[in-house]
Design brief:
- One of its GO terms (molecular function) is endonuclease activity.
- By secondary structure, this protein is of the alpha+beta class.
- It folds into 2 domains: 97 residues, no CATH class; 113 residues, Roll (Endonuclease I-creI).
- The strands form 3 sheets. The protein has a 5-stranded antiparallel sheet with strand order 1-10-11-9-8. It has a 4-stranded antiparallel sheet with strand order 3-4-6-5. Strands 2-7 form a two-stranded antiparallel sheet.
- The protein is globular and about 60 Å long.
Amino acid sequence: NGFFGFNWPYWNASSNMHCAICWNSLQLGVITMIISGHQWSLSSQNMTSKTQSAGNQRRYNSSLVGTSETTRTATPFSQTFCQWLAGLIDGDGCLLVSKEGYTSLEITVGLEDLPLLRYIQNKLGGSIKMRSGAKTYRYRLHNRQGIIQLVTCINGYIRHSTRLLQLHHVCQQLNIPIITSESLSVASAWFAGFFDADGTIGFSIKNGIPQLSVRVTNKLLQDVSCYMDIFGGNIYFDSAQNGYYQWSIQ
């Protein structure tokens, strides 16, 4: 199972918003980004693994790093949902602390992904508004108890470079210890969440032979290398849009 055979947590929320593609039991959810442009291949043999070694999770004070170990705070949500949500936030979300010290979460998606935000809203509360002129919807969660519940859910699963720093600021404001990001495996639902944010599926016919490609893009190499570490494939650099990295497997 894992990413290539994983049923997305909100799979049943809106059946007309999803597609099912049969390829080694491949089941994929909402497609939110289309990438084009010239690519330069990077050898997978030269890539450095970013996946942390397995071991006990360590929880640190958000302002002073320590070494004391403790257990994860209980959450009403399943591990699958928490991992998936963390992946989605890593790709399309933003954790904020205002000048006044108020914490909030924002997730922005295209019009076609409104059912995804509804699914999260049903779990966590919060509000959804259409952004004028942008053809996008924005989900926002800002009440203190809701943010605490959110942090309890995603703490230890956030791993994107920018988002992890944002989580540190939020945890510091709420006096919640940070949990280091757990090691990823083929069964981690984080891959599905990040794919819902930054992934694409491509299908073409070449010389009469159908070809299927699965791709994930991001500005930083370290934030897509985990896909190659777990699933293989290759990573390319595209100079369009100020440059980005794309993991691809066919």
